[in-house]
Amino acid sequence: MSASLDQRNNTESQQQEKHNGSNGNGVVITTATNNSRSLYSNQRLRLNPNKTHESENYEDLQLEFNSSLYSKLEQYLPPNMLSVNRDAKVQYMREILSRYLPEGERTRVQRHREYRQKIMSSYQRRHKELYTMQADTFFLPTFIHAITENTEESLRSIITEPSPGIYTFKMLQPEFCKLMLEEVLNFEKWVHEAKFKIMRPNTMNRYGAVLDDFGLEAMLDKLMDEFIRPISRVFFAEVGGSTLDSHHGFIVEYGNNRDLELGFHVDDSEVTLNVCLGEQFSGGELFFRGVRCDKHVNTESQREEVLDYSHVPGQAVLHRGRHRHGAKATTSGHRVNLLLWCRSSAFRELRKYQKDFSSWCGECQREKKERQRQSVVATKQELLRREGESMA
């Protein structure tokens, strides 16, 4: 989940200490998983998907993750694993996916499944049309046209980049925003009347709801697959933008009797979509302070990395999850935002083998440039020294 930078560092330090019966991420490994690792521990995922491979169907299995995620991830398996039986594939993919669960999440999977089932069996949807993707009524024509064209030129025609790596564009129809706000209000009313304990979106927001939990998971999955991934493939390729395969979708609320602001943090995502639904409000600007890897997450921001972004209903902002940010106080009114954390299991697996993140971390880039500068200076000095010796 999202966490303040200090909290994140504390959590990571605690995780590094848990070596007994864990994989270094605080996740207990079962005997079956250990057997799978012994067979395939030297196998790495493909960098690009095998689009000609027809994945297995996993819908009949009781899995910790959405069955479609296993089908997508299968296209990244090493060639020699494509011919093994389905159980072996599941075990291998489960071990990979479990490494990236938030702390303690694995032990809560079953309870969360029961929590969702209780909601599904009791909650009466107000606007059923929201639960299936209806692009023509959800999105503005300009947005649909750019995605349909699916070229960098068409995407750039609707996108503004107010600061490097931060992209804004008009996205949602006013009617969609209105219906979604009413659906969230209806869900919150049901929660209150049923005296149902709601799970909040993350550890930092005390208000809001997880949209996936009350039936919007399939719609949001299509939003990621068909609309956000095409954009991310162009603008966030270096952090797995073309391989997004899972999401966490939720609503956050700010204002009177709600959260007022949000502390400085990074998201548990490769790419984050943040769309303002409304309503009437002032303040609440997002502030951005540069992209950082784990090593440099607390380093100083450079002047060119500083941006304050003002929300506009229906307008989206898209950024890397590792782009440090927060929200200033909402000084009046009520602000509601829809967020979609988009993740790539392939990118997270490959990242384990990287030591340099200069393709996206601002501090890694500066360190690399400084090393190059020092190398050039040293080379010049050596050439001058040799030239002086030859003339002596």
UniProtKB/TrEMBL annotation:
<keyword id="KW-0847">Vitamin C</keyword>
<dbReference type="GO" id="GO:0005506">
    <property type="term" value="F:iron ion binding"/>
</dbReference>
<dbReference type="InterPro" id="IPR006620">
    <property type="entry name" value="Pro_4_hyd_alph"/>
</dbReference>
<keyword id="KW-0408">Iron</keyword>
<keyword id="KW-0560">Oxidoreductase</keyword>
<dbReference type="InterPro" id="IPR005123">
    <property type="entry name" value="Oxoglu/Fe-dep_dioxygenase_dom"/>
</dbReference>
<dbReference type="Pfam" id="PF25238">
    <property type="entry name" value="OGFOD2-like"/>
</dbReference>
<keyword id="KW-0479">Metal-binding</keyword>
<dbReference type="GO" id="GO:0051213">
    <property type="term" value="F:dioxygenase activity"/>
</dbReference>
<feature type="domain" description="Fe2OG dioxygenase">
    <location>
        <begin position="245"/>
        <end position="344"/>
    </location>
</feature>
<feature type="region of interest" description="Disordered">
    <location>
        <begin position="1"/>
        <end position="29"/>
    </location>
</feature>
<protein>
    <recommendedName>
        <fullName>Fe2OG dioxygenase domain-containing protein</fullName>
    </recommendedName>
</protein>
<keyword id="KW-0223">Dioxygenase</keyword>
<feature type="compositionally biased region" description="Polar residues">
    <location>
        <begin position="1"/>
        <end position="14"/>
    </location>
</feature>
<dbReference type="GO" id="GO:0016705">
    <property type="term" value="F:oxidoreductase activity, acting on paired donors, with incorporation or reduction of molecular oxygen"/>
</dbReference>
<dbReference type="GO" id="GO:0031418">
    <property type="term" value="F:L-ascorbic acid binding"/>
</dbReference>
